[in-house]
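haha ok so turns out i had the wrong file open the whole time. this is the CORRECT one, sorry everyone. sequence first:
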Amino acid sequence: MHQSDKPIVWLHGEVKTPPFSARARFEVGVMLRVLQRGRGLTLPHSRPMPSLGARCHELRIQDAAATWRIVYRLDQDAVVIADVFSKKTAATPKAVLDTCRRRLRTYDAVVDEEG
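then structure:
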């Protein structure tokens, strides 16, 4: 990791092989490195999720056996991962969105306390 790279803060989930294929895990690593270096990603790799809040996005990874999503937020000092899940429907499930909102609120409260 380069000195100026933003750290990745994992609130939930992980990227391991299995269940990710080695190729998909490598692809995620490349995309996360781009985000750490302060560069943005656009479709088809990432789409904004304004319903979760400012700076929230969803990485999209097509794997051989699954379609993976990584919900993340680009903070000034970190890339915050709120969830990693296999997407089985066209829309992101409401339960996933609610859980991500709760995790991000909790994270923000802890960071504010540590101030």
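Residues 48 and 88 are 19 Å apart (CA to CA).
again sry for the mixup
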